[in-house]
Amino acid sequence: MRRALVCKGWGGPDASVAALFPEGAVDVVSPGKGWHDVVEASKASVLIGYSTGAFLLLQNEDLWERFEEVVLFAPFEDFKAEAGKGGRVKEAQMKYLLRWLQKDPLAALGDFYARAGLDRKTPTELPYALEDLVWGIERLLSDSVKGDALGRARAFVGAEDALLDATEIRRMYPNVEVIEGATHELRGLLEGSGWSL
Fold first, then answer.
1. SS3 label, residue 64
2. Which helix (H) or strand (E) holds 136?
3. Low-confidence ranges of the chain (pLDDT < 70)
4. 45: exposed, middle or buried (C-beta count within 10 Å: 0-12, 13-18, 19+)?
5. How would you label 143-179 residue by residue, b for 16+ Cβ within 10 Å and e otherwise?
6. What does the pLDDT look like over 1-33, one tens digit per residue?
7. What are the residues facing 87 on neighbouring strands?
8. Of 62, 66, 105, 132, which sits with the fewest C-beta atoms within 10 Å of its C-beta?
9. What pLDDT sits at residue 1?
């Protein structure tokens, strides 16, 4: 059995990601300050990026070469709608989320899950360190992918994604496969893509 390292999306619990794969087949890394070191040290043969995880991998294509296969789900080059790169979230909304996250992180996460169309309830505990949750939003606000790594990737995006404009991403990168009926939820993207470990 192949082993994968999953660079997950912002604010998601590790267990909900790991449950989508065969038991023991994946390690999950959160999009926080130490994510790069974890990927660099991984012995997995497959590298998976999901949402913010895909964004970080697109910024660090040099990490791909140590893996036999790299697959991206819900990838984007810039999350901000104003950038015109397929993101649908306005910068002002992200700044508001960042402030809210620092005051009432559980409520902020619950609101994000609802707006993103993710099948999760408001959490009762943080999925990982608040410092890393803040770091992730700050990266989405300040960073943008340079180059065309997405044009060389095996990538999938949902046609019904509330956070990403699949039509625009596909227009820029015809290699990105649009999955009809899929949202931003990783489960639907995996099932619709037909890809598996």
1. helix
2. helix 130-142
3. 1
4. middle
5. ebbeeebbeebebbbbeebebbbbebbbeebeebbbb
6. 689 999 999 999 999 999 999 999 999 999 999
7. 164
8. 62
9. 66
Q: Which pLDDT score, from 0 to 100, does residue 36 have?
A: 96
- CB-neighbour burial class of residue 187 (10 A; exposed 0-12, middle 13-18, buried 19+): middle
Q: Is 112 helix (H, G, I), strand (E, B) or coil?
A: helix
Contact between residue 74 and residue 164 where contact means Cβ atoms under 8 Å apart: yes
Q: Which of 160, 172, 2 is nearest to 76 (CA)?
A: 172
Q: In whole angstroms, what is the distance from residue 69 CA to residue 172 CA?
A: 23
- Per-residue pLDDT, 121: 86
Amino acid at 118: L
Q: Cα–Cα distance between 64 and 116 in angstroms, integer?
A: 28
Residue with tokens 């608040």: 130
Q: How many CB atoms lie within 10 A of CB 80?
A: 21
3-state helix, strand, coil in the chain (%, to 5): 45, 15, 40
